[in-house]
Design brief:
The complex is a heterotrimer of chains A (379), B (359) and C (327). Chain A has 379 residues and is of the alpha+beta class. Chain A is built from 14 helices and nine strands. In chain A, a hairpin with a 5-residue loop joins β6 and β7. In chain A, α12 runs antiparallel to α13. The longest helix of chain A is centred in the N-terminal third of the chain and has 32 residues. Chain A is elongated and about 105 Å long. Chain B is α+β, with helices and mostly antiparallel strands and 359 residues long. Chain B has two domains: 225 residues, P-loop containing nucleotide triphosphate hydrolases (Rossmann fold), CATH 3.40.50.300; 112 residues, Nucleic acid-binding proteins (OB fold (Dihydrolipoamide Acetyltransferase, E2P), Beta Barrel). Helix content of chain B is 24%, strand content 34%. In chain B, a hairpin with a 2-residue loop joins β9 and β10. Chain B is globular and about 75 Å long. Chain C folds into two domains: 70 residues, no CATH class; 236 residues, MetI-like fold, CATH 1.10.3720.10. Chain C contains 14 helices and no strands. The longest helix of chain C is centred in the N-terminal third of the chain and has 37 residues. The N and C termini of chain C lie far apart (54 Å). The chains are: A alpha+beta (379), B alpha+beta (359), C mainly alpha (327).
Chain lengths: 379, 359, 327
């Protein structure tokens, strides 16, 4: 019994290790996207999770802010510009002894002026003589900083960096690119399964072969066709309908294949019963196949939608890289090049691009897995 | 109203010849059962009548009209499938109304017809359920109901009871017989179960390897099988067969050897048979007697006794297959006993080497 | 374009396809009658309506391009003049091409193997632990993310800062905390390939995992129990019952990931753009599609090399399909 439970603990630990390794990268990205961009650039995302001690230097206000009360000149303000939740523990007035005083204690400068600092950053700097310098003196503080998060990065990325527009563009690419093949292929798959016609078996073999044809084989000829088409009719060679059709073409084989496998699994006798009932092929398709295929449609929809949403190459080749057409993945790639050091933009942008897939993933995981297991072979 | 004529019909699946020159006349309002072992072509025959399979040669006509090229919907038929083939996403009502809706009937008419069929089949309470929520027997009724609502001239049944358990099967069998009386329609029924065939049919067609082996009323087939196959196929338990030889022959009688222990003279002859020919003697278990006077007898040891209450089956040692004897009631014969089995000459059948029966 | 414009053309695009099928079938039904000779004709028209759009798209986007790409590979950079094997000759002597082939082979060797291996192990571990399905969800999650998104995630992991600075990349932070020098991982030739492969393995393990999980559920419990009664150890059961049972599944997963890896483009394009000797065929091809105004000849040759890679799989698929059809 002991041995068995030892084995169980070992396997739990091993699995836990895998889970941690797998979740950590995404988790780090998510945390980073919520951090202040200045902190992001100077400390690892993991430090944002716990209360940490930070050493900071602030300069007090200068002579312009002084007030006179009783016989003292007083400058008072908060060191922290915004409420960050930081708590000051110790402070100092020289860089050599930054921890000289505890909060609440009074420190005396060489010019006899005194200063006390509160935990929340409020300081009172008192002097019998009038302050005469434009700049205040420096304070060195040690503060404990609790985890703090902000949506500022999201605001910036969505509205200033063009990720918001790219998000809309991606929907405009992915939605028709998923629905059009689904419509076309459901008819096609039905015909391949239940209709008798010359060349049916050959067509099926072509579909099976097309499943694995790399889309690189099609890029150059299709681009040529689009360019010729655009020149001939005086329209843009790269456009949304062009991308839809390209995605439809590249997803056609796998969509047809999966749908056919599903339709083929429906009982033969049911189709015959419908035929005897007087249904034409179109009646059978609309009233029997479509309602019964909803689960299969869901699976295939998810697979194709995620494929289109996550695609980079097709969007890169068949769309202009302009704000009104650029898709999320292409935009991200562009940002990787141009804003490679601005991690707040990259992490947030990446997370925005992942929202839809992750939503689909968590809401419809069952259908997603079913689709993959049904023999996912993507062309 | 709806005679069906099948004239020298042939069907091939690739190189396989599954229906060989079959000709049949099915009378209007009859209950015809196509019976045979699996792979004999009976389902194919039914599906050709339905229009679900092409006919390679020959003609099928319903009511005098050749229907070879007509799609199923124009043949005025309805079909009940083995797996019920209900539409799982529709309610019982919609299942039964589907055909009528396609014919673009009025709502009132559809409603009326479905209600009527539901009443006949006693499924009025389930009309708003989905097939998944029904038991096997209820699903079977819905499948039949779907056929009834369309008021076809011909009902086709493809092994409709084979997915039900034994008790339900008996019950549905009775109801089908009742339904036939009620509807007065032509019904063609395919089964591999000879009991169903015997109990339901006016007319049985025994198919064997794509050929009509015999066609007639149940009792014709029981008493006068045309050949060894029909003899063995019809009747339960199976007819006993004993290999033997003709010892002598006259104008109206044939005498054969009975296990070397006796001879029996059977009032049947065949023109082609002659003395010394090997023949099969067939006799049903219920026609054998135990320890009683008879036209010929033979003694053997009992090695299995099956008591059913209403009767007892004795399995007797014989070269080859055991000989089965059915006795009435609870017999006191035990395993190991030696019994004298009596043959009644008038119930004996003889089959020649080409398996044809002596008449 | 505003959101309104975009949603308008999106709807228009989708609706037009629905209308095509509906109207054409409606017209056919409208003109159809029950004339015996017309029925056959009507059926052929119906077949045509059902398959025409798919067939046309299949032809334009898959079949024609395959032959056109083969043709272009024998022509000059504009596809005008026949140059024979010139482009192939160029490829064989091009160091970048050799590097790409070498990298692609390394990817093919490492990624499918490790993804399948991890997937198998995790599927088996998760199968018998109560929180296994949560673990599976987490490990499967990267499957939903784009390669570029995964690229950003991992670039952040590999981020490099000079030796004195605080490391914000996880990997370097770990290395530094053990007292080693931080490294610019993606710029170390040869090794950087493996850092890129890690991303693909991270993604594809989920695929292997879910397919294995489904297959594991298909193993009859009685079989395992019978083996246990026969006295087989858990390890023995794993190697002599579970592995042979999953043989077919392993092959399928291997094939799927192999095909994906042959076409791998996004990750390298986003992370290094093929620099520091990380280029693969698909990147080189993309490069040649646009480099110097585009060279369709060289691009086509590279596409064909990828195609040759999937060819055995294609042949095997068709062979299997033919076998199934016979039954």
């Amino acid at each position: 019994m002991n041995k068995v439970s030892l084995r169980s603990i070992l396997s739990q630990l091993l699995l836990l290790l895998f889970v941690i390794i797998w979740i950590l990268p995404t988790f780090g990205l998510f945390i980073s996207s919520l951090r202040d961009k200045d902190l992001l650039a100077i400390s690892g995302w993991w430090s944002a999770l716990t209360t940490t001690n930070v050493n900071e230097i602030y300069r007090m206000q200068g002579m312009d802010e002084q007030n006179q009360a009783d016989n003292y000149f007083i400058i008072t303000d908060n060191l922290f510009k915004k409420n960050s939740g930081k708590k000051i523990e110790t402070f100092g007035i020289t860089s050599k002894k930054i921890n000289e005083f505890k909060v609440g204690e009074v420190a005396i400068f060489k010019d006899k002026s005194t200063v006390t600092v509160n935990e929340d950053g409020l300081y009172i700097w008192k002097s019998e003589n009038e302050f005469t310098k434009k700049k205040g003196k420096r304070l060195f503080i040690t503060a404990s900083s609790p985890p703090s998060f902000t949506f500022d990065n999201y605001k910036e990325v969505l509205f200033q960096e063009g990720i918001g527009q790219a998000f809309v563009n991606t929907i405009a690419v992915a939605l028709p690119s998923t629905l059009i093949p689904l419509i076309i292929c459901s008819y096609f798959a039905y015909a391949l399964t239940w209709m008798q016609f010359f060349g049916r078996d050959t067509l099926l073999a072509i579909i099976i072969a097309s499943l694995v044809v790399p889309l690189q084989m099609s890029l150059i000829p299709i681009l040529t066709i689009y360019n010729d088409f655009g020149a001939l009719f005086g329209v843009a060679a790269k456009s949304y309908p062009g991308v839809w059709m390209a995605h439809t073409g590249f997803g056609l084989a796998s969509t047809t294949f999966l749908l056919r496998n599903f339709i083929k699994s429906l009982p033969n006798e049911m189709m015959e019963a419908a035929k005897v009932d007087g249904a034409s092929h179109y009646d059978i398709f609309l009233r029997i196949i479509i309602p019964l295929s909803i689960p299969a449609f869901a699976s295939i929809f998810i697979l194709q939608f995620l494929w289109c949403w996550n695609d980079l190459l097709v969007g890169l080749v068949f769309l202009d890289q302009v704000p009104s057409e650029i898709i999320l993945t292409a935009k991200l790639k562009e940002l990787l090049g141009s804003r490679g050091e601005n991690w707040e933009i990259l992490t947030t942008g990446a997370f925005v691009s992942m929202t839809v897939p992750l939503f689909i993933f968590f809401a419809l995981q069952r259908y997603f897995i079913r689709g993959l297991v049904a023999g996912s072979v993507k062309g | 109203m709806a005679d069906i004529n099948i004239n020298t019909v042939n069907k091939y699946y690739g190189d396989v010849h599954v229906i060989k020159d079959v000709s049949l006349d099915i009378k209007s309002q009859s209950f015809t059962v196509l019976v045979g072992p699996s792979g004999c072509g009976k389902s194919t025959m039914l599906r050709m009548i339905a229009g679900l399979e092409d006919i390679n040669s020959g003609t099928i006509s319903i009511d005098g009209q050749v229907v070879n090229d007509l799609p199923p919907k124009q043949r005025n038929i309805a079909m009940v499938f083995q797996s019920y083939a209900l539409y799982p996403h529709m309610t019982v009502f919609d299942n039964m109304a589907f055909g009528l809706k396609l014919e673009k009937r009025s709502k009132d008419e559809i409603n009326e017809r479905v209600q009527e069929a539901a009443r006949i089949l006693q499924i009025e309470d389930y009309l708003h359920r989905k097939p998944k929520q029904l038991s096997g027997g209820q699903r079977q009724r819905v499948a039949i109901g779907r056929a009834i609502t369309r008021k076809p001239k011909v009902f086709l049944f493809d092994e409709p009871l084979s997915n039900l358990d034994a008790a339900l099967r008996v019950q549905m069998r009775v109801e089908l017989a009742k339904l036939h009386d009620q509807l007065n329609a032509t019904m063609i029924y395919v089964t591999h179960d000879q009991t169903e065939a015997m109990t339901l049919a006016n007319d049985i067609v025994v198919l064997d390897e794509g050929i009509v082996s015999q066609n007639g009323s149940p009792m014709d087939l029981y008493h006068d099988p045309n050949n060894l196959f029909v003899g063995g196929f019809i009747g339960s338990p199976k007819m006993n067969f004993i290999s033997t030889k003709i010892t002598s022959k006259s104008s109206d009688k044939t005498e054969v050897d009975l296990m070397g222990s006796a001879k029996i003279s059977i009032p049947k002859t065949s023109a082609s048979a002659s003395e010394g020919d090997a023949v099969q003697l067939g006799i049903r278990p219920e026609h054998l007697t135990v320890n009683a006077d008879s036209d010929g007898s033979w003694e053997s040891k009992v090695f299995v006794v099956e008591k059913l209450g209403s009767g007892t089956f004795l399995y007797l040692e014989k070269e080859g297959e055991p000989l089965v004897v059915e006795t009435e009631g609870d017999s006191n014969i035990k395993v190991g006993d030696t019994v004298k089995v009596g043959f009644s000459a008038s119930h004996c059948h003889l089959f020649d080497s080409s398996q044809q029966a002596f008449k | 374009m505003s959101i309104l414009d975009i949603s308008l053309i999106v709807c228009l695009g989708i609706v037009s396809f629905i209308l095509y099928f509906h109207i054409s079938n409606y017209i056919l039904d409208f003109f159809g009658n029950n004339n015996l000779k017309r029925i056959k004709f009507e059926n052929s028209i119906r077949v045509l309506i059902f398959i025409a759009p798919a067939c046309i798209i299949l032809f334009i986007f898959i079949l024609y391009p395959v032959f056109e790409t083969i043709r272009l590979s024998f022509y000059d950079k504009f596809g005008r003049e026949f140059v024979g094997l010139y482009n192939y000759n160029w490829a064989v002597n091009d160091p970048e091409f050799k590097r790409s082939i070498f990298n692609n082979l390394a990817w093919l060797l490492v990624v499918p193997t490790l993804s399948t291996f991890f997937g198998l192990i995790i599927a088996n571990l998760a199968d018998r632990i109560w929180w296994g399905s949560i673990a599976k969800s987490i490990i499967f999650m990267p499957m939903a993310i784009s390669f570029v998104g995964a690229g950003v995630i991992w670039k952040f992991i590999y981020e490099y800062r000079g030796p004195g600075d605080t490391q914000i990349g996880l990997l370097n932070a770990v290395i530094v905390s053990f007292g080693y020098e931080p490294q610019a991982w993606l710029t170390i030739p040869i090794w950087n390939n493996f850092f890129l492969m890690a991303i693909m393995i991270w993604i594809q393990t989920g695929l292997a995992l879910v397919i294995f999980s489904a297959a594991l559920r298909g193993i009859p419990k009685e079989m395992i129990e019978a083996a246990r009664i026969d006295g087989a150890s858990e390890l023995k059961i794993f190697f002599s019952i579970i592995i042979p049972f999953l043989e077919q599944t392993i092959l399928v997963i291997w094939t799927i990931i192999t095909i994906l890896v042959l076409k791998i483009f996004d990750i390298i394009f986003a992370m290094t753009n093929g620099e520091w000797q990380t280029g693969v065929l698909a990147n080189l091809m993309y490069d040649w599609m646009f480099r110097g105004g585009g060279d369709s000849g060289r691009g086509s040759v590279l596409a064909i090399v990828i195609m040759i890679g999937v060819f055995p799989i294609m042949a095997w698929n068709i062979y299997k399909h033919k076998q199934e059809q016979k039954i």
